[in-house]
Amino acid sequence: MSDKWNTRTRAVHAGTRRSQYGEVSEAIFLTQGFVYDTAEQAEERFLQPGDDEFIYARYGNPTVRMFEDRIAAIEGAEDAFATASGMAAVNGALTSLLKAGDHVVSSRALFGSCLYILDDVLKRFGVDVTFVDGTDIDAWRAAMRPDTRAVFLESISNPTLEVIDLKAVAEIAHSVGATVVVDNVFASPVWSRALELGADVVVYSATKHIDGQGRCLGGVVLGTREYIRKTLEPYLKHTGGAMSPFNAWVMLKGMETLDLRVRAMTDSATQIAEALEGDARLARVIFPHLASHPQVEVAKRMMERGGTVLSIDLKGGQAAAFRFLNALEIMTISNNLGDAKSIVTHPATTTHQRLSVDQRAILGITPGLVRISVGLEDCGDLLNDIQQALEAV
Predict the structure, then answer these.
(1) Rounded-to-integer distance, Cα 319 and Cα 322, Å
(2) From first to last of its 393 residues, what are the pLDDT tens digits of the chain?
(3) Which parts of 54-126 are beta strand (E)?
(4) Can you point out the beta strands (E) in the chain?
(5) How far apart are CA 239 and CA 158, in angstroms?
(6) Are strands 148-154 and 179-183 parallel, antiparallel or unpaired?
(7) pTM recorded for the entire structure
(8) Edge-to-edge strand order for the sheet containing 282-286?
(9) Distance in angstroms (rounded) separating the CA atoms of residues 190 and 209
(10) Domain 7-255 has CATH 3.40.640.10
């Protein structure tokens, strides 16, 4: 792979491994095991496998490795490990790093399952977790301790789209020797600058923009080769969170159009957010690159564009939000994002329903909040759909 290649070229070609048949489309190595010519060869491989040698699909697979190499090339990371889902990636990235007695600082605006891992699973095993307002740099600084082993944050929070000053947080974390783990899903690999801004470990749910067509679960963790192979891989290969070869092949196909899809979806999301700004039926429109966004300057430093997701807050609360959702004709009610199809979600009753009313209020997840993941449909059609649904409210 040439160092001169841009993101779109890397998304098509990086990491390709061709068999002796010289296939154009990447092969699916749908096998869980591998054959050795001799007992001595098997012994040698178990002792120290080479870069392109495999033992068992839970440890690695040629198709999965192609996906890992390709996403690492796009992100600018030394290495990557693919997982069965985005949450397997979050869990693996954190749990492989931590032990009882360690301290973690995390932003409090998190996806429900991320919050469960930090507030329930890690605490249950003796890890002390401190939650802070991610947009308050002084709060991050005050929460750090000599035993802080890691910090965790969503670079753009789900679903209120808070944007955290990653560079500032990374500098604070590194001053006490903590590892910075970032869930970068909303930024996407196309607009991401997480490693450049100081992240040590970047996590994606490949289920979102990378697949982008609602087909397969998957996740990936990116970082230094030392971290991926010495810390993360031993944990994941023994606990079973590996990506399947078939899913890896689907992700490879998704990556060929990743840059094109994300750019087109971002164009539409920006137009929709700007068109809805100031609508009297809405309490607020949330989009990272809107001038009204509280962290717009940080967002512009972190990402070239505002991403594919916006949120709107209907003044009539849950009843108005439900009428809006039920009146939509093009957009689909579901809970995924980053899909070719536009998807709308009511976080208070779905993805964040396990939080208490007080917790949702602190995070800004109001009864009227609707998250909109903008797809590849015609932008004019989407705007017309939103407007007629708002009129129905």
Answers:
(1) 5
(2) 667 888 888 989 998 988 888 999 999 999 999 999 999 999 999 998 888 899 999 999 999 999 999 999 999 999 999 999 999 999 999 999 999 999 999 999 998 889 999 999 999 999 999 999 999 999 999 999 999 999 999 999 999 999 999 999 999 999 999 999 999 999 999 998 899 999 999 999 999 999 999 999 999 999 999 999 999 999 999 999 999 999 999 999 999 999 999 999 999 999 999 999 999 999 999 999 999 999 999 999 999 999 999 999 999 999 999 999 999 999 999 999 999 999 999 999 998 888 888 888 888 999 999 999 999 999 999 999 999 999 999
(3) 79-83, 103-107
(4) 79-83, 103-107, 128-132, 148-154, 179-183, 201-205, 219-223, 282-286, 309-314, 332-333, 343-345, 369-373
(5) 28
(6) parallel
(7) 0.94
(8) 282-286, 309-314, 369-373, 343-345, 332-333
(9) 9
(10) yes
Beta carbons within 10 angstroms of residue 196's beta carbon? 12
CA 173 to chain centre: 21
Select from 149, 236, 155 the least CA-distant residue to 191: 155
3-state SS, residue 68:
helix
DSSP H helices, 242-327, are 245-255, 258-276, 296-302, 317-327
Domain range 258-392, its CATH number among 3.30.830.10, 3.20.20.70, 3.90.1150.10, 3.40.109.10: 3.90.1150.10
Going from N- to C-terminal start, the domains of the chain cover 7-255, 258-392
Backbone angles phi, psi at 156, to 5 degrees: -130, 120
Q: At what angle do helices 379-392 and 258-276 cross, to 10 degrees?
A: 40
Identify whether the C-beta of residue 66 lies closer than 8 Å to the C-beta of residue 16.
Answer: yes
* 198: Cβ contacts below 8 Å, ≥ 6 apart: 166, 167, 169, 170, 171, 174, 180
Residue 275 phi, psi dihedral angles, 5° rounding: -70, -35
